[in-house]
Amino acid sequence: MTERLKLVDAVIKYGDTPAINGVSLIARSGEMIFITGSNGSGKSTLTKGIAGLLPLSSGTLERTPKMSYVPQYEDADRDFPASAGEIVLTGTQRPGKLFTTRSDREAALSAMSALGIDGLSGKEIRTLSGGQLRRVFLARAVCGKPELLLLDEPCAGLDAHSHEVLFGVLRGLLSEGCAVVMVTHDISDIDGIPEARIIRISHGRIAGNE
Ligand SMILES: Nc1ncnc2c1ncn2[C@@H]1O[C@H](COP(=O)(O)OP(=O)(O)O)[C@@H](O)[C@H]1O
Ligand SMILES: [Mg+2]
Known about the structure:
Elements: E1 3-14, E2 17-28, E3 32-36, H1 43-51, E4 58-63, E5 67-70, H2 84-90, H3 102-114, H4 130-143, E6 148-152, H5 160-175, E7 179-183, E8 196-202, E9 205-209
Parallel strand pairs: 3-7, 3-8, 5-6, 6-7
Antiparallel strand pairs: 1-2, 1-4, 8-9
Helix pairs in contact: 2-4, 3-4
């Protein structure tokens, strides 16, 4: 199986304080890794480091450039005048690509429909509920056909049905060879995922590997 992510001995600091301290992690094509641990243990810091939003103080990071990341708290400017469909469509864009194509629009629509939000396409994002906006960002993340998908507590604010729908979409991506790294408190989500592992983070280190 192809490696989509290889993190070796990563240290990530805020100022002089390490929040991630010597973490190594490999995610392969078709594999799902659940990251769990108590509040403040370093889960979000780890995903931001993998996404390239925080630098490593030491260690190495190799990953596919075809990565999508959905942060825990989306600091979206809700007043930005964009519709849900326009936001999702940006997920198909890559550096150096100038225009959206018909197949980009089809991918955006199909991701919205898979997540049950195709009816929201024309709605301004400032009119959406928290759970609806979360699904817009999830659709944005999956419609670009990522090879590595990073999700930081994506189920917060999702009802049971949306949760099921999300896992259906994730199983589809996994079967197409995407690697998924998901921060979650609910490790029962592992049921029904064939190639899955749980990694427990405690005080910035890996405390358990199941
Ligand atoms: N921007 C920041 N500046 C300074 N410290 C931070 C910042 N973000 C997080 N931390 C600290 O780093 C540690 C890990 O935080 P975080 O990665 O958000 O944990 P988790 O996602 O597991 O709840 C915590 O002690 C937190 O207070
Ligand atoms: Mg967090």
